[in-house]
Amino acid sequence: MTHDFDARTQFAIDLARRAGELGLGYFRDLESLTIESKGHQDLVSQADREVELFIRAAIAADYPQDGIVGEEHASVTGATGYVWVIDPIDGTANFVRGIPAWCVVIACARDGETVVGVIHEPSTGETFHGRLGGGAFLNGRPIRTSAATSLEEGSVGTGFSNRAEAENIAVLIKKILAEGGVFFRNASGALMLAYVASGRLLGYVEEHMNAWDCLAGMLLIEEAGGTVLKADPKTVLHDGTRVITGGKGVFSKLQELCLGVFRP
Fold first, then answer.
1. 117 forms bridges with which residues in the sheet?
2. Across the strands, what pairs with 45?
3. pLDDT in tens, 146-201
4. Terminus of the chain with fewer CB atoms < 10 Å: N or C?
5. Which residues contact 123 (CB under 8 A, 6 or more apart)?
């Protein structure tokens, strides 16, 4: 089985990099990009759709019996128990405005449990990857979550979407500041999770995330020695999940702050 995970991991790394090149082509030619807006948070561009179709075609060619869940196109039901969970461009609001903080996200889950996660940021050429039981890596080098034991030692990534109450994140940020901490947001939840895995951020919290934005990063954090609030494998692919993650030394503090703020 490990061999199968390894093969899928290598496939996902290569695919994320190729998809990133495709996305980068659009990113360098934003003037001619078609963008639809359903509000600031809900932008979709022709780049999102084309990159997702590219990823789906590659999966269909190499793993035709697997399922696929993605942001821009309908789900594909598979027969193997494996489901690829993909976000072609996480951070579209950045992408369409020329801000180089967006990434290609590819996860593979088996029976609802994430076994492979890849987050590739084309603008920096950074590829974060991990597989269940196999550790987490940045461009092939092992990464670890922060060893910090206090929120005063770094920044906490905070996410916000229109699926959550605006008031809640404002209260949470106030609490983080009261602990002597600092909040960080770059408008790409997946990228911020990768930054937690690599120790750049102490942790990352968001009241609700979709599976394609968080599964890869949550696996990376666990494989890098951090702690995550476990998602329900039965519902996460369809309904998403609450996300609370961090290095072992700050996770319980972050969880305590979130419990008082996020809706039960």
1. 107, 130
2. 35
3. 999 999 999 999 998 877 788 899 999 999 999 999 999 999 999 999 999 999 99
4. C
5. 24, 27, 100, 101, 102
CA 175 to chain centre: 24
Widest pairwise Cα distance in the chain: 52
- Domain count of the chain? 2
In this prediction, residue 166 carries a pLDDT of 82
Chain-centroid distance, C-alpha 257: 22
197 within a domain of the structure (yes/no): yes
21 and 84, same domain (yes or no)? yes
Q: Around Cβ 178, how many Cβ atoms within 10 Å?
A: 10
Output the DSSP codes for 33-73.
--EEESSTT-EEEHHHHHHHHHHHHHHHHH-TTSEEEESSS
User: pLDDT value at position 165?
Assistant: 80
Tokens 């990133």 locate to 20
Q: Is residue 264 part of a domain?
A: no
pTM for this structure?
A: 0.95
Q: Residue 159 has which token pair?
A: 């996410």
Contact 30, 42 (CB under 8 A): no
The per-residue pLDDT for 37 is 65
Mean pLDDT over 22-30 rounds to: 92
